[in-house]
Amino acid sequence: MDLPAGSTSTNFIQNIINEDAKTGRHGQRVHTRFPPEPNGYLHIGHAKSICLNFGIAADNGGLCNLRFDDTNPSKEDVEYVDSIQEDVKWLGFDWGDRMFYASDYFPQLYEFAEQLILMGKAYVCDLSAQEIREYRGTLTEPGRNSPYRDRSVEENLDLFRRMKAGEFPDGSRTLRAKIDMASPNITMRDPVLYRILRATHHRTGDTWCIYPMYDYAHPLSDAIERITHSICTLEFEDHRPLYDWCVETLKTYRPQQIEFARLNLTHTVMSKRKLRELVEQKLVSGWDDPRMPTISGLRRRGYTPEAIRDFCERIGVAKSNSLVDYELLEHCIREDLNARAARAMVVLRPLKVVIENFPADRVEELTAENNPENPEMGSRTVPFSRELYIEQDDFMEQPPGKFFRLAPGREVRLKHAYIIKCEQVVKDPQSGEIRELRCTYDPDSKSGGATSGRKVKGTLHWVSAAQAVPAEVRLYDHLFRDETAGDVNGDDSGNVLNPDSLIVLKQAMMEPALTNAASGSRYQFLRQGYFCVDPDSRPDAMVFNRIVSLRDSWAKAQNA
C-alpha cells in the first residue's frame, strides 16, 4: 500500500529535517514512529499525529513505525491494540513489517537499568508515592534528597534484582534516576524509572512484576529502533531533558525529540481519560459513539479518511497551542462528500400531501441525477404518485416574509417533478393538528413540459407515500454545548453535555432506492445534509446517521 504524502507545505519540523539533511545528522535518514499507549481508543488529535509522523516519513523518503508503548498493564487491553491498528489503516497508512511494542524491549530496558545502577546513576528508593511527592518540592522550592539516595551500588543492584524476583510488595520500592533534586525542571528531580506492579500484561503475561515508567521506556524504545525524529505533542516539552538524559547517559543511539502543538477542538475534549469517563459513565453508547471525537466514532458517523487528512493538513503544524473550530472539520467533510456522495430524497418529519388532480392509480417514474457535481455517477428513477410526503417544516399556514416554501394558495416546485399548489389544509378536528395538505399540480411543469420554465420561489424534496420506506434517522450534534469544553488548559469545569446532541427520528420516509444501501454508504439527503448508513441498519430497518448539515458557517466566514 502506498503511503499518502504528508504536508507539502513547509513547517518548522520539516525545516529541522532539511537542516539535518544539510549537516548529515542521522546519516541523512528520516525514521519516525507513532507510539500510542494501548489504554483507550484513538481520537482526532491522534489522527493529527498519525498524519504528521507517517506524512513526514513519506515526504522525505523515510520510514515510520507503529509502536505500542505498553508499559502500564493495569490500564491496557488487546481491544485497544486492535482498534488502534484498524484506525491507522483506515486513515490510509501502512507500517509494513514495523509494528513493535515497548514490551518487546523489557529485557533490554531492564539491562539498561542495571547499567544505570552500576554507573551510580540510579538507586532503589523505599519512599512511598506520597512521600516522593512531598520530597520533590515545588515550582519555587527545591526538592530534598531521598534518605535512600546514597545506597551503595552493590546494595542497589541487589535490591533491584530482588524487586524483579518478586520479593517485595507492590508500591514498596521504586528505582529512581539520580539526577538533581534542585533542578528547576521538576521532571529531573530523581524521576521514577521502575515500579513494582503485579498485573497481568496483555503480551508478557505474569513474567514481570516490575514495569518501566513511560518517561524511561519511551526514549530508549526510540533509541533501540534508531528513530531519528521523535515527534510528540507540546506537553512533553518539559520531559525532553529526561528523554535526552536517558539516551545520553546510556550512550545509545540518540533520537531528536521535537514537540508540536496538540490539537484542541471546540465543543469536545481531547483527553483520553475524560473520554474514558464518558464511556464508563454511559454518557455515550461507547467509544464509537458518533458524537465522540474518536476515530472510530467519526468513522461510524460517516467521516472519510480523506476529509480527516485534509483537516490535519489545513490546521498545519504549530509550536504553540490554539483552539481549532470544529466547523473547519465539518467543512472538510462537506467538501469531500459534495463531489462523491449520491443524492437521495428522505423526508425526516413527514406531512402527507394529496394531489387531487393526479390519477389515483397512476405511478410515474421520474429521472433524478445522482450527483449534479459528478455526471459520471449517472441517474436513478424515483416514483411519483397522487400521495406524497413533504417535510412538516416546509409548510406554514401563516408564513412570515421570505418563507419560500408551501403555504395556502402558494406554489412550489417538487424536486425532479412538478409544480404544485396548496388548495386546502386538513386538520384533526379535536387537536387542530395538520393532518394533510390538498394540492393540485401543473401537468406541464415537469422538465420538457410547456410550463417547465415557469418560475416559482421554492423547491422541496419529497417521497411518494405508497413506495416510501420507513427509516430511523439519528441527528447528531456537538456532545458539549460549551465551545471550550476541552480548552487548551485542560479545564473541564464548564463542560455541559448538550441535551440535543442526539435526536432520533423513528418515522422518516425515504425513497425506495435506499432500501439496500450498504453499511457505511454515504448520501446527501437533499436540503438536509450528509448521512451515513449505520452498522445497526438492516434491509427491513434502515438506520442513518447525520454526518453534517449542509450549512457551512466556516466557508461563509472565510468568504466574508
CATH superfamily of the largest domain: HUPs
Discrete helix count: 13
Low-confidence stretches: 487-494
Q: What share of residues is helical? A: 25-40%
Coarse structural class = alpha/beta
Please tally the β strands and state the result. Answer: 25
Mean pLDDT: 94
Strand order, main sheet: write it out: 10-23-24-25-21-22-11
- Report the sheet with the most strands, covering strand number, pairing sense and barrel closure: 7 strands, mixed
> What general outline do the C-alpha atoms trace?
elongated
How is the CATH topology of the largest domain named? Rossmann fold
Under the CATH scheme, which class of the largest domain? Alpha Beta
What is the end-to-end distance? 41 Å
- The figure for the number of domains is 3
Strand content is: 15-25%
- CATH architecture descriptor text of the largest domain: 3-Layer(aba) Sandwich
- Which quaternary structure do these chains form? single chain
How big is the Rg? 30 Å
Write a structural description:
The protein has 560 residues and is of the alpha/beta class. The protein has 3 domains: 26-260, Rossmann fold; 272-342 and 471-559, Ribosomal Protein L25, Chain P (Beta Barrel); 346-461, Beta Barrel (Ribosomal Protein L25, Chain P). The protein contains 13 helices and 25 strands. It has helices at residues 12-23, 44-59, 78-90, 106-118, 129-136, 153-164, 214-224, 240-249, 272-280, 295-301, 305-315, 326-340, 553-559, and strands spanning 31-34, 63-68, 99-101, 122-125, 174-177, 192-196, 210-212, 229-233, 256-260, 342-344, 346-347, 350-355, 364-369, 379-384, 387-391, 411-414, 419-427, 434-442, 459-460, 463-464, 469-476, 502-510, 522-525, 529-533, 542-549. The protein has a 7-stranded mixed β-sheet with strand order 10-23-24-25-21-22-11, covered by helices on one side. Strands 19-16-17-18-12-15-20 form a 7-stranded mixed β-sheet, with no helix packed on it. A 4-stranded antiparallel β-sheet has the order 4-5-6-7. Strand 23 (522-525) and strand 24 (529-533) form a beta hairpin. It is elongated and about 100 Å long. The chain starts with 11 loop residues before the first helix and ends with a helix. Residues 487-494 have low confidence and may be disordered.
